[in-house]
Amino acid sequence: MSNDTLFAEALTHFPGGVSSPVRAFRAVGGTPKFFRKASGAWFEDEDGQRFLDLCMSWGPLILGHAQPDILAAVNEAMHEGLTFGAPSRRELALARKIKAMVPFIEKMRFVSSGTEAVMSALRAARGFTGRDRILKFDGCYHGHSDGLLVKAGSGLVTFGAPTSAGVPKGIAELTSVVSLDDLETLERTFAELGSELAAAIIEPIPANNGLLLQRPEFLQRLRELCTKHGVILIFDEVISGFRVAPGGAAERLGITPDLATYGKIIGGGMPVGLYGGRKDIMGVVAPDGPVYQAGTLSGNPVAMAAGLATMERLTPAFYAGLEANAAKWAAAFETLPGLHCPRYGSLLWPLFQDGVRRSDAVKGEAISSFNRLHRALLGQDVYLPPSGYEVAFLSGAHGDAELDHFKQAVAAVAKAFA
């Protein structure tokens, strides 16, 4: 069946016809693509059209689609059983590898998504400190649990306001929100609320609402303030973890959080998450402590096998090659008139605006231009993330042939943006 036919049926089954909102193409216009298979840097839709993928399942496919070693590991594991609901040796193998790559993780817990990892890390922080309030930063996304679907409320920084229906006001009010790149408000918030805060959570490389690269001194001061006030600093590395370096953003920035959260990259694209860090904080998690958190599919053997096969291939040489290659792709993006492409490692943000560090600084016309670019490149067999606020991702499968295809596609649409 064609994409259009499939989407028409999907509208009868799912809200908006999709299982996750951004897939609906509401931001960029048009009908969503239904994909049937993928390999390397390419995937093919149900109409038989091939696309160069610059989304890569929103980041976790750092080695590319259907990487042979990952497929072999998954095949071996699934023939021994899809899930046990019990411990397996594969959990230990992946845990050893992760601890070798991220030395500050003393203890960890596998879960099934980034959202679950963040929710659980915050619960552990509250249990450890005995405090209820948390601090987050406007422009950072940490999943869809109630206490994090919050924006800055009017007036005082003390109270947050829900950004989604269905989030109780009382829960939102336990979350304080500060803008990124606002050191003055950060200082004032800790001065006023430091003794009430259980945790401060931030994407050290904010990449869920644009690539909002922060000044190192802002992040370092956040670390200092958390230490001073006994607040647990949580780095949400669901996107940046294992993608920008073996030790993620924490390694590259030289800043050690108390806890960190990770997402599906540690499962090679399978549904996996992880939270971990200081062993004294993790010691409050059941069954060692009073903070309850559980999951039937946590640490399932198939995801663990895929994760280990991925981690074993993330060598210093791999990261160096990916970094150098990503610089070429960013330069190719910037041949489009008026487009700037901030980059961190293999994360790229094509935006028709320069110097953006806060999501509220993004101009409407910059997003409108991106929407035009998305449609234009889709016509040239290039698939960008379907939102101007999302970043593009590269993988080890994006080689010279793919870059040549991309350059030709950009050249074909460039006149429309002159």
TrEMBL record:
Keywords: Cytoplasm, Isomerase, Porphyrin biosynthesis, Pyridoxal phosphate. The gene is hemL. The keyword Cytoplasm applies. It comes from Geothrix rubra. Pathway: Porphyrin-containing compound metabolism; protoporphyrin-IX biosynthesis; 5-aminolevulinate from L-glutamyl-tRNA(Glu): step 2/2. This is Glutamate-1-semialdehyde 2,1-aminomutase. Its EC number is 5.4.3.8. Its main location: cytoplasm. Homodimer. The modification N6-(pyridoxal phosphate)lysine is found at K264. Its cofactor is pyridoxal 5'-phosphate. It catalyses: (S)-4-amino-5-oxopentanoate = 5-aminolevulinate. InterPro entries: 4pyrrol_synth_GluAld_NH2Trfase (IPR004639), Aminotrans_3 (IPR005814), Aminotrans_3_PPA_site (IPR049704), PyrdxlP-dep_Trfase (IPR015424), PyrdxlP-dep_Trfase_major (IPR015421), PyrdxlP-dep_Trfase_small (IPR015422). It is found in: Cytoplasm. The keyword Cytoplasm applies.
